[in-house]
Design goal:
Structural class: alpha+beta
Number of strands: 13
Low-confidence stretches: none
Helix content: 10-25%
Strand content: 5-15%
Number of helices: 10
Strand order of the largest sheet: 2-1-13-12-11-10
Length: about 425
């Protein structure tokens, strides 16, 4: 069996294969040093964390650390951690089969809001006056590439008062917030875009959530259910995901911890959910899986996703995601002017500027360093879960150093 032919069975049937790293030509001492570096850094030792390294289809390193200050106790193979914004890449993966299945109705150049209710992918936004005329120019490709112009700041834990935009009267729920119909004191509202769609970059959840609503409108299915059927269950991630959408999303504390013994999706705006400042009132738009964050899974399941990405959307003999889509999603997005100002594709980060990390590296990245790095040229997947988020430069140093240490342990010719 070649590496390209291997795909791990579900965990209840044995799961991932593992091996002594030295059998694959790995410098075991250097690999141990890389794992120790991960385990002893404050980002891991404080609130816990997990690291899995998949090389040529084998687990060559796996570690679970219970934090000294909080987090899952104990942190182990069954711990399901919220992978935060890495959820975006799961949604982005599902967009591949979605665009293929519904190509007669939608493509990357389709207008999301449109010029009127009749040609809108999200006609619900026309229930109130459009808050910014530029929103009519947002295309599917813009929200997936973070070039739609939406604001970034999230009101998850905002203690401030909520206000309707002048002339609007709606529930304080997720989509009503995404559309710009209400806002928090002191937090940028979504009623005005930062720039003309396609002519800038700003990392944000809110365009993606509107895309998620478009997917639900077209498929008739909650996005979590749609993704589970087409992506998660086929690769061996627990079937419970199909039924176990967790509604309660109160964080454990102000560190934004969210973990469980069970996998599941967050559902925006529903009763008991503190996301987007929901006031538990009824939303006529309805609830949907949040696609910008809130997906919980074990690290071994996270590695399955990374392995699917490594194999360009194929699992066994089945092409779950079009290979062309995986190639496009993991390539820098080019704006209307032909420029690629950010190392971002369609919901994936492109790590092409970190020497000596290979230029074909791409990643999903989430708050609290819930990251997955895929390096096709090395047949390598690295998944990391955690519950502590260092300042930006410290985070970058931690991950870059970890990747360099892992890569230095691999055989030089990678044969």
């Amino acid at each position: 069996m070649t590496n390209n032919d291997y795909f791990p069975p579900p965990e209840i049937e044995g799961g991932w294969r593992s091996t002594n790293p030295s059998i694959l030509g790995i410098d075991s001492k250097k690999m141990e040093q890389a794992v120790n570096y991960h385990n002893h850094e404050n980002a891991t030792s404080s609130y816990g964390g997990s690291l899995i390294i998949i090389y040529k289809g084998h687990i060559v390193a796996e570690t679970y650390i219970t934090g000294k200050l909080g987090g899952p106790k104990p942190w182990n193979k069954q711990t399901c951690n919220d992978i935060k914004s890495s959820t975006k890449s799961i949604f982005g993966t599902a967009i591949g089969p979605f665009l293929q299945e519904y190509k007669a109705q939608v493509n990357l150049d389709s207008l999301l809001v449109g010029e009127n209710r009749e040609n809108s992918l999200i006609p619900q936004i026309w229930d109130q006056p459009i808050t910014d005329e530029r929103k009519k120019k947002i295309r599917v490709k813009h929200v997936l590439s973070m070039t739609s112009g939406h604001e970034s700041t999230e009101p998850w834990l905002a203690p401030s008062l909520r206000h309707h935009k002048s002339g609007y009267n709606v529930p304080y729920q997720m989509y009503e917030y995404c559309f710009g119909w209400w806002y928090f004191d002191g937090i940028p509202a979504q009623h005005t875009l930062l720039f003309e769609p396609g002519y800038g970059f700003n990392y944000s959840n809110f365009g993606l959530e509107q895309m998620a609503l478009a997917v639900r409108n077209i498929t008739g299915e909650d996005v979590g259910l749609y993704t589970s059927k087409r992506i998660l269950s086929p690769i061996g991630i627990s079937h419970e995901l199909l039924e176990n959408q967790y509604i309660e999303m109160p964080y454990k504390d102000d560190r934004e911890l969210n973990y469980s013994d069970h996998p599941g999706w967050g559902v925006g705006g529903s009763t008991g959910c503190n996301a987007y400042g929901a006031d538990q009132s009824f939303s006529p738009i309805g609830y949907n899986s949040i696609v910008g964050s809130t997906f919980r899974c074990t690290n071994r399941d996270f590695a399955r996703l990374g392995y699917l990405w490594l194999r360009k959307g194929r699992w066994g003999s089945t092409q779950l995601v079009p290979e062309e889509w995986m190639n496009r999603a993991t390539t820098r997005f080019k704006q209307v002017d032909g420029k690629s100002p950010m190392n971002y594709g369609y919901t994936f980060w492109i790590q092409d500027e970190w020497a000596p990390v290979p230029r074909d590296t791409f990643a999903s990245r989430g708050h609290n360093v819930n990251d997955c790095y895929v390096i096709p040229s090395l047949d390598l997947v690295i998944t990391r879960q955690g519950n502590d988020n260092p300042p930006r430069e410290q985070r970058k140093h931690f991950i870059k150093t970890l990747l360099e240490k892992i890569i230095s342990a691999l055989p030089k010719n990678n044969d």
